[in-house]
Amino acid sequence: MARLMTQRQALKSQLEQEVRLQSPVIRLPSELLSSIFVIGVLGMGDEDPIMVPTLMLVCRYWEQVALDTPKLWAKVTISPHDPIDKARRRLERSKSCPLDVTVNFTPRLDNSYSVSEQVMLAMDLLRPALWRTRSFSLSVPNRSQVHAALLQWKDDAPLLETLSIHIYHSIQEDHRAAPTAPLFIGNTPRLRSCSFTSFNFGWDLRLLTRLRVLKLGGYFNGSTPSPSTLIAVLRQCPQLEELALRNIADVDLYPCGPQEDTVPETLPSTNRIIHLARLTKASFHYTGNALTQHIMSQIAFPNLEQLELCYLQDINSIIKYLHTQALTRISLKYLRIESCLLNEMSFVKLLSRLSSLTVLEVIDMEDLTSYFLKALTSSQPWICPHLEDLNLDCCTSLDWDSLRSFVEARLPPSPNGFARYHTSVMAMTTSASEAAASQARAKVNFTTHSGLLKPERLRSIDVTRCSQITWEMVQWLKMYVAEVRCESAQGVWGENVLS
Q1: How many domains does the chain divide into?
Q2: Are 354 and 384 in contact (CB under 8 A)?
Q3: How far apart are the first and last CA of the chain?
Q4: What is the pTM of this model?
Q5: Is residue 67 domain-resident?
Q6: Is residue 37 part of a domain?
Q7: Beta bridge partners of residue 193, listed in sequence order
Q8: Could you report the per-residue pLDDT of 422-452, keeping only the tens digit for each?
Q9: Beta partners for residue 145, in sequence order
Q10: The domain containing residue 21 runs over which residues?
Q11: Residue 387 lies in a domain
Q12: How confident is the model at residue 19 (pLDDT cuts 50, 70, 90)?
């Protein structure tokens, strides 16, 4: 009986295995299963680092298919948490697939003497794969480590599209870190995105050509680029879509880079306006007034949608350039101004030209008074009629009456408020659908008779660090605004009283 029971169990297991082999998932071709893996791992947004090992644990067939899919191994990362051996395996399994390489060593006190060695080992490993590198990101503590690492790469990069070099100690003076030779021997035909933080590359204009995204930051003292250098770069990038300048010392204090007479003669004259028809996003954070004004006066941006001006001191000249651009065409939807000085009347005059603006953020602006909100409340005509999000963080000069009037003016019209358009009492309905239809008709009639377009209702407002706004005022705002952001009131023991 025991022998028969054993044979029965073996036969049952064999039958179950044969049934599983007939499953449609098991019979999928390897090419189709590989495509499903690529979509599931890479096509769903952020890549999960444990997703591929999980797929390989399902069965031997899935493991072999995952190993034979180069795209699953095309992302190579070398850091203190990602050893070089792991990167070597990924390079082997990716075969000839385009690579996305990241080398990231944050400054740490316990490994300050080994970072340079680890970076050099990583660059030696990646050097044979430079010809198929699609994106490359390098983040190290010091400039000397970047220059020593890039000097090892003396080949071209025909597939490179995105280049990012970040130096954490941007203010540190390092006289040994001289500008490197032309990166990738000056041959990067597909390069479209550059992001440099405190990286001194001699401002070789051959590298910054035909870019779509340009981000520069962390340039102080003698490494600050001159206005003529940046203008020369912008002239070579007529298809630029995003421009970001952060933490750049004022050019009046530390002039640097090629002077007017050293700019190549093949470039157009600096007196001509640069038309950046595809520029949709621009940000200037602590870049100095002289540099920002010079750039804004030399470019035209008819399709600009997002603009950030932060820590620039007096921006009245920049407001003037924006107003001049708005007289012809500008499609600005997002505007952020933080810790700057401006003329309130000029700012309101600019807002009157920004009819497509939906998000306005004015943070830590002591120059803004109640005149600013009263101008947005007036309907002669409406200023920024599509405004939905307003950020007034740390604007302590605005009084409560003007803020309440502004919110009330943006409320939608009520059907009962247009009683003159109802012919009888029976015309007023209580059904939800009919009431909505009546409200729409009332809004149309209001627009037709008055000639004014009712503005959009305010969707969110931020009154954080506004000491003049009390708890009762915040509760009133929450009745008419969907999202109200404010500081939480704390009790005696530090607990949150107001959420």
Answers
A1: 2
A2: yes
A3: 72
A4: 0.81
A5: yes
A6: yes
A7: 162, 213
A8: 444 444 444 555 555 655 555 555 444 444 5
A9: none
A10: 14-72
A11: yes
A12: confident
